[in-house]
């Protein structure tokens, strides 16, 4: 069974930083586009950042210049470095693995990020 396990969430003050990790197992990690999504209470889930199998990246406008997505195919892990955090970044962050050719899509269980003083 495919597993995506997120870690690194927590409570941080505004302006602070966190790094999220998502470790994947039982998939051919290198062929998957990996993404980070988030969902705040009462709001729909939204894309934060995505990195393709070829390491091309795309970001939501709200996080450009503050967040960086990266991947380590040798470790089957995708990261989200979050800097200059704002209270509006508070949400549950989910890891996603997607492959269009095989039409497979997987989600992690989510990790809570809370930005508050």
Give the strand tally: 11
**What is the mean predicted local confidence, pLDDT?**
96
**Whole-number radius of gyration?**
14 Å
* Class derived from helix and strand content: mainly beta
Beta-strand residue percentage: over 45%
**Helix amount, in percent?**
under 10%
The poorly predicted ranges are none
Number of helices: 0
From the spread of the alpha carbons, the general shape counts as: globular
How far apart are the first and last residues' alpha carbons, in Å?
39 Å
Features:
globular; 7-stranded mixed beta sheet; mainly beta; 117 residues; 53% strand
Written account of the structure:
- By secondary structure, this protein is mainly beta.
- Helices cover 0% and strands 53% of the residues.
- The chain contains no helices and 11 strands.
- The strands form 2 sheets. Strands 2, 4, 5, 6, 9, 10 and 11 form a 7-stranded mixed sheet that branches.
- The termini are far apart.
- The relative contact order is 0.32.
Could you give the topology of this structure?
Blueprint: E1 3-7, E2 10-12, E3 18-25, E4 33-39, E5 46-51, E6 57-59, E7 67-72, E8 77-82, E9 91-99, E10 104-107, E11 111-115
Parallel strand pairs: 2-11
Antiparallel strand pairs: 1-3, 3-8, 4-5, 4-9, 5-6, 7-8, 9-10, 9-11
Please give a quick description of this structure.
The chain has 117 residues and is mostly beta strands. It has strands at 3-7, 10-12, 18-25, 33-39, 46-51, 57-59, 67-72, 77-82, 91-99, 104-107, 111-115.
């Amino acid at each position: 069974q495919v597993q995506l396990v997120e870690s690194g969430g927590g409570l941080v003050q505004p302006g602070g930083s966190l790094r999220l990790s998502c470790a994947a197992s039982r998939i051919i990690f290198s062929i998957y586009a990996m993404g980070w999504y988030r969902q705040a209470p009462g709001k729909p889930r939204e894309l934060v950042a995505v990195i393709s199998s070829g390491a091309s990246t795309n970001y939501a406008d709200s996080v450009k210049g503050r967040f960086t997505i990266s991947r380590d195919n040798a470790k089957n892990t995708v990261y989200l470095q979050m800097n200059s955090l704002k209270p509006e970044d508070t949400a549950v962050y989910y890891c996603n693995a997607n492959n269009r050719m095989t039409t497979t899509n997987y989600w992690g269980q989510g990790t809570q990020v809370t930005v508050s003083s």
